[in-house]
Amino acid sequence: MKKIDYKLFIAVLLIATFGIIMIYSASSIWAEYKFQDPFKFIKAQGMFFIVGIFLMYFLSKVDYHLYYKKANLILFGCFLLLLLVLIPGIGTIRNGSRSWFGIGGFGIQPSEFAKIGLIIYVAKYLSNNKKNMRDIKQGVLPIMSLILVFFGLIMLEPDFGTAMVIVLTLVVMIFISGVKMSFFIKLLMVGLIGIVGLIIVAPYRMARIVSFLNPWTDPLGSGFQIIQSLYAIGPGGLLGQGFLNSRQKHFYLPEPQTDFIFSIISEEFGFLGVLIVTSVFFFIFFRSLKISLKQNDLFGKYLAFGLSFGIIIQALLNLMVVVGIIPVTGVTLPFLSYGGSSLLVSMASVGIILSISRK
Amino acid sequence: MFFNQIHIRIRVCLVVVCVLLFAVIFRVFYIQVFKYNKLSSLAESLWSRELPITADRGEIRDRNGKVLATNMTTTSLVVIPNQIQNKEEVAKKLANILNVTYEEMYRHISKKTSIERVHPEGRQLSYDVAEEINNLGYDGVYLVKESKRYYPYGNVLSHVLGYVGIDNQGLSGIELNYDEYLTGADGAIKYFSDGKGNRLELTEVYEEPQNGINVDLTIDIDLQLAIENELDNVVSKYNPEQALIMAMNPNTGEILAMSSRPNFNPNQYQTSSVEVINRNLPIWMTYEPGSTFKIITLSASLEEQTINLFNDNYYDGGSIQVEGARIKCWKAGGHGAETMLQVVENSCNPGFVIMGQKLGAERLLNYIKSFGFGKKTGIDLNGEASGILFSLEQMGPVELATTSFGQGISVTPIQQVRAVSAAVNGGILHTPYIVSKMTEPETDSVIKLFTPDEGVRVISEETSKMVRYALESVVANGSGKNAYVENYRIGGKTGTAQKVQNGAYMVGNYIVSFMGFMPADHPEIVVYVAIDNPKGVTQYGGVVSAPIAKNVFKTAIELYGYEKSKEGMPREYTWLDTKYTMLPDVVGMTLEEARKTLKGFQIITSGSGDKVIYQSPEGNYYAEEGSKISLMLSN
User: Which residue among A130, A176, A271 sits closest to B28, beta carbon to beta carbon?
Assistant: First the structure.
């Protein structure tokens, strides 16, 4: 057994630790107000972090070929969980979507775990159908249909953000497997026509899309979150207000410890902090791609790529929302946002990548 | 080969991810560097709450720096609804103290706003009330400093100064006209609050209020007090409908004093009617000027050399026929044979009709216009009227005749003062003004200085000299003798104008006026007095208004130290008047010589010795016959 990629391992530990610290800074005011305990969120997240470290270490020891063998079973399990969570009484509603299993004080999001399950399954599918993938009907359409089914299930919750992350990751995996470019161009066109069609049917959607470009057109409605985010980022300046000195966390930015934690980082650490955080994300992605590129085993190659792309695309979607490049989608920032399932899944993904790095 | 294709596409993905990451970084850079100022100030206004501190309004002062309008510090109540815990209790307590209903107070306290001023009940609180509220010690209830306008002289100069509303906004007079300068920039105590309105333990910022700019007037408050006193006397003595006095420096157009009755107290403007407050009579009132207007006809005639004061004669038989209309002289039976100077002295109407006829309608009207009648003078006060003139087409022989002696046209007091100033100052028409300068509140350094305009020449210096001579003679020998001050040279003209109501002249209801200036050889002050319908007195300008002008002149002499003159015209006395004679100079004489020389005077001596070393009053000037003369003796 070769050694794991320690640089990747340490980078993930660093960013997740920074995440814990920032969750404290962002959440303590809210936690104090809601639960009379400024450490409420950080306690829970800290526990998940410790579990996450063990999980990551443990998974890095496990031979990833196990997932190849159990891929179908894992996918079936994910399918069942996604069905179960839709049943009232079993799944609980938080923030308007029935996407949680409430266990004790914690919630578990099956869609987060489905992400890994699907990446494993697609990696296996692609490595098995190496030749078939050149044929759209034979190779691409079956797996696309499967993806569509899972997309549909997650949209029933609804959890648009996670669904987007999963679909984008899986489609990009299919993209690297060598499917003809023309297919993706068609796919893109179908998507565009669909969006145009939706806008023609209901013109208010256009306003919704345009509103994120100028959030001040609806400052108390759709523009509210992005305006509050900009009020955090802007005054941060080059060097930031200093650790713990965010003002927007004082009940201006709603739930600053989750989707919009990057705003608080920008506010407290300024452009310098933003550069460091994005650099660490790039480093994690770059190290993971190197592992994928080195692999001679096709399943390992696809798996390492899929898992790392899943993390980076989620990070990008979150960052682009927070800085106002795309409309609000509701995606958390891996390693940094508060949320146990998200942290565990991100660390588990890295654990699997690390186990691939041994080969 | 197959791996190659995968690896190319993986690298494509890497490039796309890099591009998106850079997009994020650039976007953050853009927000934090280029949008920094805008977003910071927007965010600042979101985070910060301000307790306002009102700035002091600039002071209004007279020409010598005496304060006419200043500020008092009071306190006002503001509440921050989000910080008030027990709204019912606080509302109840505050309602009690301020004498408002509980519902009203509760509405203030529970308003969905970051900061609420309790208006108007909580404004400009007295010390006791403020103390009581302060003692409650509730969170979210604040007392902030508020500045309140105060006019130390009360009613004095009220129309000019104007008044301010509850928010210290100028509502009339100088307060309104110069509001943008007088108004300061309010300051604030700024603190940061969280999204729920609670105060954060972050630094407070004190923004100092910027006080307003001071405005200095050309008014001399000492002279102003004198005319106010005269007006008060006029009101109690004659109970007129209206009365006004104004004084101007004829060489510059500086208004030295102006006031009218009825007036108001700007500290309690609410108790006066809007009409009283808005009518600044010296610039607002329009009426037929009467005989004071003859100065204009005289000036025009002298300038055009259509008359000779000394050589032209006129026989006044008591009336004159114009186009079938008979215009009567004010004196029944007429003045008989007169020189033109006597026509002026006697204020003889038919004589002036002749003057007007010699000029002709066009020339007279041109002079009236060039003397500034028919349009606003442009004084820096609001509410000025422009008066009404006949147009040349309307001006038939009868209109020409009546205009010549001041009837049938409508003018304002300020127009007359300005025109007469031009007639006696050497012939230059100035724009009157009342603000002399504006100064910076902290250092009192001058920001803007107002200087007299260059003026427009309307008559020659020679003509002006003749006018002064004629008008001095009116005071010495004619209808204006009640304005005569011994040993000083005063010129002037009386006026008795009939008032028009519903197109007809009213009977026994006149505006009696006097227009005077001194010293008559080089005028430094023009005084105009007009009294509307004085009761219980013969309604003649010479009887009612001239003595008032005389009192104003006496004050001016005290204030400005005009030198005595021996060149003035001696006054003609009647048996009614107190007689004045030339008092000889006895300094240097022995007591015995002095006693002989001062026969008819009462002599009081002081000191011991035989030689007079000092006498009071001074010799070689007029003194009242039989009055007391003090002599100081020495060896």
Answer: A271
Question: Under an 8 A CB cutoff, do B17 and A325 touch?
Answer: no
Beta strands B214-217 and B60-61, pairing class = parallel
CA of A242 vs chain B CAs: smallest distance (Å): 14
| Residue A90 distance to chain B (closest CA, Å) | 36
User: Closest Cα to residue B243, out of B535, B477, B16, B570?
Assistant: B535
Q: Which residues of B touch A (CB under 8 A)?
A: 2-3, 5-7, 9-10, 13-14, 17-18, 20-21, 23-25, 27-29, 31-33, 35-36, 38-40, 42-44, 46-47, 192, 194-196, 200, 202
pTM of the predicted protein model? 0.64
Our CA dihedral for B222, B223, B229, B232, rounded to 10 degrees, sits at -130
pLDDT band at B571 (very low <50, low <70, confident <90, very high): confident
What is the DSSP code (8-state) at residue A297? S
Contact B7 A293 (CB under 8 A): yes
How many whole angstroms separate alpha carbon B298 and alpha carbon B306? 10
ipTM of the complex as predicted: 0.94
Contact B409, B365 (CB under 8 A): no
Cβ-based contacts of B36 with chain A (< 8 Å): 234-235, 237
Maximum average pLDDT range among A77-81, B206-210, B329-333, B539-543? A77-81
The one-letter amino acid at B337: A
Q: What is the mean pLDDT of residues A124-145?
A: 88
Q: Which residue of B has its CA nearest to A275?
A: B25
Taking contacts as CB-CB distances below 8 angstroms, the residues of chain A near B32 are 233-234, 236-238, 266, 270-271, 274
Mean pLDDT of chain B: 88
Catalytic site residues of B?
291
Which residues of B are less than 8 Å from A231 in CB distance?
39, 42-43, 46
The pLDDT of residue B574 is 63
Between A and B, how many CB-CB pairs are < 8 A?
A: 115
Cis peptide before A334 (omega within 30 of 0): no
A94 pLDDT exceeds 80? no
* Segment holding B44, helix H or strand E: helix B36-47
**Is A325 in Cβ contact with B25 (below 8 Å)?**
no
Digit-coded pLDDT (tens) for A139-152: 889 999 999 999 99
pLDDT at B577: 63
Cβ distance B28 to A323 less than 8 Å, yes or no, reads: yes
Nearest CA in chain B to A133: B2
At residue B83, does pLDDT exceed 80?
no
Distances (CA, A) of A85 to A94, A95, A108, A117, A346: 12, 15, 10, 16, 21
**B24 to A270: CB separation less than 8 angstroms, yes or no:** no
Query: What pLDDT band is residue B438 in, cutting at 50, 70 and 90?
Result: very high
| Domain ranges (residues) in chain A | 6-357
CA B632 from chain centre, in angstroms, equals 46
Report yes or no: B464 and B424 within 8 Å, Cβ to Cβ.
Answer: yes
Residue B576: per-residue pLDDT: 59
